């Protein structure tokens, strides 16, 4: 187990003591059951998976071969320079009007929405119950961290480039993020605001080419669509491109079992207390579940979907807002469901906090020693 966790045996044994495991349980020849092994995995911030046939493992071993698992919705993040029309485009796709209500017309957080594909496809398309999960990100220069998180949680990025403004600093930033993510993130360029007169699409394309983004139509490998979020032009084309790319990627995830995901954003609501929007990546999150994220935990009191409806179960690809947190989790934190319920969640967080303290102490000590050496 220590080998699998990539820790020293003594570290494992120390955690066992801290988990109040008895001496006989701690003996090297004792075989732990999957619950015990899972609790230990969580202690080391690893993700336990228990499969009826394959037994105990830690993520991603069991899910490594996903071919037999159900399809999951693609996570599509809308990114680009400030005011290039990301929120408006998403509003048009989901028949909402978020952009109009934003302070100064500037997005300052990551918005997450699950949109039924049937509402996105042209009339007469074959019926489907598939959905696309969209994340809206801010384009303002100040929100680099949020963009980086957006890019790390996603399958596909829609790079929105306003045709009247072209490639700008945050356009380049997004291209670099996608390039750094390699094959794990696909990109579609949406040349936006194509309703405007006197736009120069060739200039946009050559700007993109200078950043290493060659469109398919020019012999490269990046699909591009011409759209206008405001005038609702080219949306079918965009949705079709996204669906095709998602299909090629064959995105699948385990639906059964404990939930895993990540925190998209968090804040304190006057009425509800601490709330956090999370995106479930694997498994099913249910109300009442004990979850840990970063240095805090929650017993899920309520779950609300992106349309404000209360739900009781959230499957992969579903963004949900959760109440019941002890402390404010940090956006980007990995979320895990605690195998042993509330008790284990509490312990896990106590351990993480203690580890942080230990590390801080060790760092202090190192600094003091370094100073001493210097003084000598
Ligand atoms: P940030 O989130 O702050 O980065 O901005 P954004 O990219 O979400 O842009 P937003 O959707 O808020 O739109 C910015 C401005 O561009 C608004 O005034 C929109 O009405 C306008 N706009 C957005 N899309 C289009 C479009 O397709 N055509 C035209 N003509 N204007 C658009
Ligand atoms: Mg916006």
Automatic annotation (TrEMBL):
It comes from the Eukaryota. Coiled coil: none annotated. It is found in: Mitochondrion. Residues 71-252 form the Tr-type G domain. Transmembrane segments: none annotated. Belongs to the TRAFAC class translation factor GTPase superfamily. Classic translation factor GTPase family. IF-2 subfamily. One of the essential components for the initiation of protein synthesis. Protects formylmethionyl-tRNA from spontaneous hydrolysis and promotes its binding to the 30S ribosomal subunits. Also involved in the hydrolysis of GTP during the formation of the 70S ribosomal complex. This is Translation initiation factor IF-2, chloroplastic. It comes from Vanrija humicola.
């Amino acid at each position: 187990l220590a080998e699998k966790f990539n820790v020293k045996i003594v570290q494992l044994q120390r955690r066992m003591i801290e988990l109040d495991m008895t001496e006989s349980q701690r003996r090297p020849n004792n075989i732990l059951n999957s619950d015990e092994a899972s609790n230990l995995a969580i202690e080391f911030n690893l993700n336990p998976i228990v499969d009826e046939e394959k037994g105990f493992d830690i993520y991603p071993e069991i899910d490594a071969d996903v071919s037999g698992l159900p399809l999951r919705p693609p996570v599509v993040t809308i990114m680009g320079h400030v005011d290039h029309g990301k929120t408006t485009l998403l509003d048009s796709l989901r028949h909402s009007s978020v952009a109009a209500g934003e302070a100064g017309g500037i997005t300052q957080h990551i918005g997450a929405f699950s949109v039924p594909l049937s509402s996105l496809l042209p009339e007469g398309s074959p019926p489907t119950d598939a959905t696309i999960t969209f994340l809206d990100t801010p384009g303002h220069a100040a929100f680099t961290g949020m963009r980086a998180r957006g890019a790390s949680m996603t399958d596909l990025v829609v790079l929105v480039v306003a045709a009247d403004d072209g490639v700008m600093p945050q356009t380049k930033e997004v291209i670099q993020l996608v390039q750094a993510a390699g094959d794990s993130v696909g990109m579609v360029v949406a040349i936006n605001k194509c309703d405007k007169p006197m736009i120069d699409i060739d200039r946009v394309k050559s700007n993109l080419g200078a950043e290493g983004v060659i469109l398919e139509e020019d012999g490269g490998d990046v699909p591009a669509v011409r759209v206008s979020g405001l005038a609702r032009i080219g949306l079918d084309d965009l949705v079709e491109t996204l669906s095709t790319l998602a299909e090629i990627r064959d995105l699948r995830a385990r639906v059964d079992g404990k939930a895993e995901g990540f925190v998209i954003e968090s804040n304190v609501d006057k009425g509800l207390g601490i709330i956090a929007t999370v995106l479930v990546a694997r498994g099913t999150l249910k109300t009442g579940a004990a979850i840990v994220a970063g240095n805090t935990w929650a017993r899920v009191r309520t779950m609300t979907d992106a349309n404000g409806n209360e739900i009781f179960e959230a499957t992969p690809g579903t963004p949900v807002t959760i109440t019941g947190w002890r402390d404010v989790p940090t956006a980007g934190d990995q979320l895990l469901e605690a195998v042993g319920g509330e008790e284990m969640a509490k312990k896990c967080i106590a351990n993480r906090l203690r580890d942080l303290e230990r590390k801080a102490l060790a760092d202090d000590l190192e600094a003091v020693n370094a100073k001493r050496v210097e003084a000598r």
